[in-house]
Amino acid sequence: MSGDLRTTAASVVSWFLLNIAIGNLNGWILKHHGFSYPVVLTAVHMLCCWLLSAVCLVTILPPADPRPTPVGTVAKVRTLALAFCASVALGNIALRYIYVSFAQMVSAASPFFTMLLMGAYGRQAILPRASYSAIVPMCGGVYVCATVGELYFLYARLHRGRRLHPAP
């Protein structure tokens, strides 16, 4: 494996594992520790992201071209950042009421709904047909894994004779 391919693979695997860990930790903090401030949790999350990103930009990934960013690009990035922050905040609020596996299923449906919206706006020609067929195993795989995990958990709890505690 070449160096670039290893870096890419390591980045994707670590991103995948960290996303799972963050979702589970957020749910654990909000449900099992009675932390009733999901927006504060989001603010701490965003602050840590900003600090770690700054450290990475200075040490690991300095920009190749340090010229100032055009104003139009900054406005687009700002809009994306606000949408991302709102998404994380609302996701943290939702984790107080739903299971993490259900939240992961909803998140996995994002590409599907993105493609539906692209079709509604008449931009279907942007993606090749293979993209549409790739959505089924991608979204469906997460649904199956989350459902099987929940069913196994339900079976294990019932088999051991313990009471089930529904999401608050």
Automatic annotation (TrEMBL):
Key words, A-Z: Membrane, Transmembrane, Transmembrane helix
Residues spanning the membrane: 12-30, 37-60, 106-126, 132-155
Bilayer topology annotation: Multi-pass membrane protein
InterPro entries: Sugar_P_trans_dom, TPT_transporter
Domain Sugar phosphate transporter as annotated: residue spans: 11-154
UniProt-annotated location(s): Membrane
UniProt keyword annotation of Phosphoprotein present: no
The protein's name in its UniProt record: Sugar phosphate transporter domain-containing protein
Native species: Emiliania huxleyi (strain CCMP1516)
